[in-house]
Design brief:
about 400 residues; Elongation Factor Tu (Ef-tu), domain 3; eight-stranded antiparallel β-sheet; 22 strands; about 35% strand; Peptidoglycan binding-like domain-containing protein; PGBDSf; transmembrane; TAT_signal; membrane
Length: about 400
Amino acid sequence: MDADVPPQAPLRGRRRFLLGLVTGAVVMALAGLGASTFVKSPQQAAAEAAAPPASLITATVERRVLREDVVLRGTVEPDRALEVTPVLGSGRSVISRRVVKAGGRVGAGSVLAEISGRPVIALTGRVPPYRDVHAGMTGSDVRQLQAALRELGYPISDRAGVFGASTGRAIRRMYQSRDYEPPLEEVPAAPDPAPSAGVGAPAATPAKRVYLPMSEVYFVRTLPARVAAVKAGLGAEVAGPILTLSVGGLVVRGTLPPADRELVDPGMSVEIFDETSGKKAPGRVTTIGELRQGAGSETGHPITISATGTLPASFTGQEVRLTVTSATTGEEVLVVPVSAIFSAADGATQVLRVRDDRREPVTVRTGASAGGFVEVDGAGLAEGDQAVVGGRTGGARPDGTG
């Protein structure tokens, strides 16, 4: 044996053995701890699989005005369309000046058109002109003319239905105030009882007096009216209607679905909304017709809406949205969602109120309903209370009835 090599110490080997033993024990302990996280008892597994406890969904009792609305579409049209076809005079009849345009207002005394240099004047009346009216004539047409002239502010002292001097003066003023020469005709010469003494004396200038050609007036039953369309432009030869007048104002016509018929009645308020311009106008249901069969949405009841005021001229021909208020409480009432109402075992109508985590059934009387809410009246129920409308989980109803 070599004397220079020291002998191995017996304690070093023992330390190595103990260190390995401790390390192995720690590793086994950690492995056991990790495995224990994946092992669950049957009781723990069942508890984790069970549904969580049910929680309540509540809504606030509030005050509001309840409204039930019916929405439909309609088209803005004249209440009554009148095709203006003037009586033509002799000679060629051509539109010689543009006077009115679509959407323009036509009142009593307005010039509807100028044909071959002569006006066609709108007057109020029911009977169309059927003859030229001359001084000395009598009849219902003369009476109608006199009434129309008085409407324009011209005084007439002639007997009703008799074309006298004051009627002639009124006609003259009507033309002159519109910058037209009044129509004149020669007065028939009275027979000369004796031959003229002067040979070669100049002939007297024939006297002239005013009259009214039937081609230069157009009687409209209701004025003012509005020009719905111009059918004959400048230079066009007149061979038929030259204008379409909307008489009696603009109305909206649409179709009410059969399912909504019981909700809507004449007289109900309507909001008329033009989606193109963003303008709104109030109106009322005027008429509802009998059910008409058609294709798809065309089946329904014809409905007419009249504006409370005057519809803007820009609405003419537009499709608009109509919102009919079919029912309203008129004032704020106490309401809850419909889902908050339930029937108790004794048949009473109740709301389940929640206060301090306690559920208290409150018996109520219900009233109007609209938009998912119902009017309620119950002792102790007040604005701001919380009413149960459902639960997030669980199969039982909030009132425990299942």
